[in-house]
Write a structure and sequence with these properties.
Layout (H helix, E strand, L loop, with lengths): L8 H13 L7 H30 L5 H26 L1 H15 L6 H42 L23 H46 L8 H5 L6 H55 L5 H33 L1 H6 L10 H17 L15 H19 L2
Helix pairs in contact: 1-6, 2-3, 2-6, 3-6, 3-8, 4-8, 5-6, 5-9, 6-8, 6-9, 8-9, 8-11, 8-12, 9-12
Length: 404
Amino acid sequence: MRVEETEDFSLIVTSFYFKLAGIWPANNQKEEYLRRATYSTAICLLVYGIVIEIRDLYFSWSSFAELIFVLCNLMTIAMVILKVIVLTLNKQLFFEVVAHLEKHFWHNNYDPYEKLLLDRCRHMCTFFICIFNFFAIGTVVNYTLAPITAYIQNNESERIFIFNLWLDNSILYSTPYYEITFCSQILVVYQYGIFYLCLDNFLCVTNFHTANQFRILQYRLENLYRTSSMEKQYKTSEPISPQCADDCYVTFKNYVRQHQSLIVHCNKVEKTFTVAALGQVLVFSILICLDGYLVLMEEAPVSRRLIFAFHIIGCICQLLMFTYSCDCLMRDSMDIASAVYSMEWQLFPMNYSGKMLRNDMQLVIMRSKEPCGLTASGFFIVSLETYTKVLSTAVSYFTLLRSY
């Protein structure tokens, strides 16, 4: 993902996280070696974290509070692992999606109104990514600071790791082994945070920008007769000449090709991220429920409650960003039908171009009734309705858990 020529903050942040994760299109052999080394290191850290948490789960069955804490960590880890698997298996499709975004979305020449739409889209991406990243990074930072705070409060008499190792009288608690182990766990936490952020940031960016391309296409279709070559004839309200109809039909065919290109792009995004979308929707209900329980648990230390306060707000923001961007994509793709019908097609003569334009319009309208968007492995389309259902399910789970 090359962002050297853009000032879009959301693109810069998204590209930065993908590079830290070791997933980006390499320009040369040197970059490819660096990418593979970064990715291999990231995978090793992820595996290290999985082993620690599974071991922690084994020793936490006797304490309900600790069990809930470990289960919440494992749910987050499971979601991150699913994202890693999805990106690894669909790496080529992902690179094709990135290449299409760079070629057709971010470096085209737009008129003033289209630039205004693009700026609004960039501001929307930046807003959601900043909010989501703030709470996600805040969760990671609080994970790191919790053992340090406990160490200071206990007058440096007790050393605590970020993740419990369940090792008695271990040499790991003495200097310098403690510091080395603690730093390795910090790397694990931050690596999970990077993978947790990168895919959702990218989905937000690509969904909002694709929806914006549908809005730009709507604007172009609605103003088909008002292009520069026919502007004079439009202002004088003269009847549309056959030559003008031919020019309009050629322009309309180019817009149809643009519409087809957007549909193909949406299908690639769907194939790449549909499994990850299903996993996120299934996990979010349980994760928000567990986060809420840990925040309200009175016997839990303040540092742990602060961690999951950040986490639950981050999850809610992440879910809203995810579902709202998908909802925008779905609705803007369907609005193409209204834009096509508003083309002043009734003014075109009944020559060959006029007849063909009317026939092609019907096909575009019929295709637009099937929305483009992201589905959860084909079970349902992700939209704002999904957001309300997930929150409703999370509240139900939380009520059941509180009565335990």
